Amino acid sequence: MSGGDGQRLDKWLWHARFARTRTAAQRLIATGSVRVNREKVLSSSRLVRPGDVLTLALGRGVRIVHVLAVAERRSSAEQAALLFSEHVPAGASPPAEFRPHGSADRSGARSAATGDPED
């Protein structure tokens, strides 16, 4: 990890593991799903720096992250987690797909046998 001047947005999203590939990160940016400091970004080459705030529309949820560092290369998930801190508004909980394994509530759960919603 380095505290450098900045890094391309697509590369940072890939290093921080918000996208599986740089192409997926570029697609996320091109669709307008990423904001940097409240400004919609459509260019993958936009530089992000420590201190920037990213708003990411991922799936059915929105994640707000503070960039803490940039990385020279993609590393483990543990190292990627050191690149940002997540902001969760007071009184809110992260969407189910972002909660740690085993902590999701059972509302809207589906039957394992049929895939139909449980009542």
Q: Short summary of the structure?
A:
GO terms for molecular function: RNA binding. By secondary structure, the protein is α+β, with helices and mostly antiparallel strands.
Mean pLDDT: 82
List the strand order in the largest sheet: 3-2-5-6-7
**Range of helix content:** 10-25%
Which oligomeric state applies? single chain
> Please, how many helices?
3
Radius of gyration: 16 Å
Strand content: 15-25%
Cα-to-Cα separation, first versus last residue:
48 Å
- Counting structural domains, the number is 1
CATH topology name: Structural Genomics Hypothetical 15.5 Kd Protein In mrcA-pckA Intergenic Region, Chain A
Give the key terms:
two-stranded antiparallel ribbon, Structural Genomics Hypothetical 15.5 Kd Protein In mrcA-pckA Intergenic Region, Chain A, S4_RNA-bd_sf, RNA binding, 119 residues, alpha+beta, 17% helix, 3 helices, RNA-binding, 22% strand, 5-stranded antiparallel beta sheet
Describe it.
This protein has 119 residues and is α+β, with helices and mostly antiparallel strands. It has one domain (7-96): Structural Genomics Hypothetical 15.5 Kd Protein In mrcA-pckA Intergenic Region, Chain A. Helix content is 17%, strand content 22%. It has helices at residues 9-15, 22-30, 77-80, and strands spanning 7-8, 34-36, 39-40, 47-48, 53-58, 61-67, 84-87. Strand 2 and strand 3 form a beta hairpin. Helix 1 (9-15) packs across helix 2. Residues 99-107 have low confidence and may be disordered.
Task: Compile the SSE list and pairings.
Blueprint: E1 7-8, H1 9-15, H2 22-30, E2 34-36, E3 39-40, E4 47-48, E5 53-58, E6 61-67, H3 77-80, E7 84-87
Antiparallel strand pairs: 1-4, 2-3, 2-5, 5-6, 6-7
Helix pairs in contact: 1-2
